[in-house]
Amino acid sequence: MSHPEEKLAELGLKLPEVAKPVAAYVPAVRTGNLVYTSGQLPLREGTLIATGKVGDAVTPEVASECAQQCALNALAAVKAEIGDLANVKRIVKAVAFIASTPDFTGQPQVANGASELFGQVFAEAGAHARSAVGVPVLPLDAPVEVELIVEVN
């Protein structure tokens, strides 16, 4: 299997710098062979890709792009904790929070922006359990937030 960062490059993507926390927490914590990330917002070069609610100011397509960026930010946090994404054994669980209008029911499709990336980068090791949850609001008025549990070697 190719190195995960080579797979990202093939997709035209690269890992960003680890996003600075917006409050009192750390981006990721390792315990044993598991890494838990804090919720990652769709920050690209320090700026949110979009703000607002999915189903109103944010389209599902833009929200899916936000979920992918959250996933990249989470992978950057994992790499900072373990040194090399080649040490990822499996993406165990992803949780996607989608700030959405009360009538929006496409949270799973938005979360696919993250889930599909994990599959493209890690193949079978990217298959994971997942929750996609609609919420009324997220920090900084972000439309999406993603957190991970990752098993590492």
Automatic annotation (TrEMBL):
Residues 6-151 form the Endoribonuclease L-PSP/chorismate mutase-like domain. InterPro entries: Endoribo_LPSP/chorism_mut-like, RutC-like_sf. Gene3D superfamilies: RutC-like. It holds the Pfam family YjgF_endoribonc. SUPFAM superfamilies: YjgF-like (SSF55298). This is RidA family protein. It comes from the Bacteria. It comes from Kribbella karoonensis.
